[in-house]
Write the structure tokens for this entry.
Amino acid sequence: MVDRVPTGIEGLDEMLGGGFLKKRHVMVVGGPGTGKTTFGLEFLYRGALLGDKGLMVLLEEKPEKLIENMSQGLDWKLQEQVDNGSIVLVSVDCFNWERLSDTLQAYVTRHNVNRVVIDTLTLLKMNTEDPFEFRRNIVGLIGFLEGLDCTVLFTAEAPYATREGAEYSLEEFMVDGVISLYNIPIKNERRRALEVVKMRGVRHSNAMYPFKITKSGIVVYREEII
Ligand SMILES: Nc1ncnc2c1ncn2[C@@H]1O[C@H](COP(=O)(O)OP(=O)(O)OP(=O)(O)O)[C@@H](O)[C@H]1O
Ligand SMILES: [Mg+2]
């Protein structure tokens, strides 16, 4: 039995029979504003409350900006977890693969990190012209992080809003797990929903459930069907 790493997201661990598998990699994919960054950060925040150490690699935001944005909607004590070193936020600009590996290696070993979030994989892809090189680098990165005993969450941007419009790319096939976030237009508003598209080695729920981003974080409503 592989150990589980609970996401701590209300309603999601029940869908996964306890959480992610330890040392595996999961991609959270969704359109703009679907909650990808919130999801990634909550994975680290809930982990920090359990004593885990988390590292978030930011490719499009500065740590201060992220904390500022997240503090608007969430009443988490995020700054406290950052100050006590349970969550480390690092922004990587002028991206290249060597620099990313070096950064990861340095932070993971120095801070004893066991949960890693990379926000977003899409930017790594955009910065790598050759798809074969991208694939080789991702496989290398995943293996490297597994060797460091980390459970990894990648966020990725999807150009679609609904399940029907979903198009899958190389990354979805490479990772151990895929969770899709949607923001579905229904009448004059949008409703958030999520589904576990795949999770290797896990018997998971196949239903699409509504969720909300509340002041205490993401809440999945498993008693409702969208
Ligand atoms: N407590 C809250 N209640 C309602 N909405 C919230 C709350 N906290 C955040 N939001 C909204 O949730 C959305 C999700 O933000 P988040 O940054 O996680 O999404 P994202 O998928 O990473 O977006 P992007 O595509 O811009 O990277 C934002 O539009 C934000 O305003
Ligand atoms: Mg984001």
